[in-house]
Amino acid sequence: MINGEKNNVLTKYVNETLRQGRGETDMGEVTIKDIARICGVGVSTVSRAMNNHPDINEETKLKVQKAIEEYHYIPNNSARNLKRQESNTIAVLVQGMHNAFAGDMLTAGELYVKKIGYSLYLQQVEEEEDVMAVAAELVKEKRLKGLVFLGGRFQNLKERWKHLGVPFVILTSLTEEPCSCVYVDDVEESRKMVNYLIQKGHRKIALVTTPDHLRDIGKLRKDGYLKALRENGIEPKEELIRRMDKEEKEFSISSGYDVVSRLLKDGVDFTAVYACSDYAAIGACKAIFDAGKSVPEDYSVAGYDGLEIGRYYHPEIATISQPIHSMIEKGLDLLIQEIKGEKKYQKVIFDGELLEGGSVRNIS
Length: 364
Fold this sequence. Notes:
Elements: H1 4-19, H2 32-39, H3 43-50, H4 58-70, H5 77-85, E1 89-95, H6 102-115, E2 119-125, H7 131-142, E3 146-150, H8 158-162, E4 168-170, E5 180-184, H9 186-199, E6 205-209, H10 217-231, E7 241-243, H11 253-265, E8 272-275, H12 278-290, E9 300-302, H13 308-312, E10 319-321, H14 324-339, E11 347-350, E12 353-355
Parallel strand pairs: 1-2, 1-3, 3-4, 4-5, 5-11, 6-7, 6-8, 8-9
Antiparallel strand pairs: 10-12
Helix pairs in contact: 2-3, 2-4, 6-14, 9-10, 11-12
């Protein structure tokens, strides 16, 4: 069971093993060598502590016992297999090591599943990894009851879905597969934000989004941007639609900075920037500051996601907030219904909320 106290330790351990290239992130499958390394002792010391050997002091015994409990170490194959058979675990796969909602997923998800007798297992998946391959391996290794996918792209995967063998829910609209989904309408919410900028007098609005070849939320938010412009009689200009490079981290602060830096150097005429994430919006602000300009006096900046960091940034970032805790709880609720065989394939759309901030100025 993952809780807030253990989260930092767990995250560090997962990241370390990923860096080592082992690909082993199942804390229930750690070896005696892992326990020894965590405790800073030898393997023989761990073995003697587990067997209550008299030559091991109480402090070391307690340290080893705590590590075993925290990382769910099972000392032999028969016990490990028994544990798998009795598993009542739901795994959450978070695509992207810097996914902004991973922490919220742990907080809201753990509280929810604990009430109904399940445990939650978080698996972070790097951007370039095959999330379906990771999911299939987890299902086999941990005898999962179900899966929740946060982030990722899910198209043309019908046959691979079938082979998972357990119910699953996707927290995104980026799929046409027959499955349960919980999401906000990114097109409509993006349209809402651009309409807000237009109401503030902005008609030359630059967009920071992902490359065109990616069928992701960046594309959906771009569609909402274009829809708002056309509804207001504004012809979209290609020079104002700025895409992150393929090599840049999607929706990161650095990608927002790089895109807007290039925009400013090109001398393009604009009054506002709409970045398809709050992180990219913060990077856009930094690029404007470094160019000797101000936000919002010279340029207004808006984001998307409603991240906490945007509330404490100066100026506070105007954004579209997603009700992520409610979405996570609803996703888990749908999953439990499927596990129990009560309902199947439901889609639930939540409304976002436009949060005004000091990063946008009225120029009308």
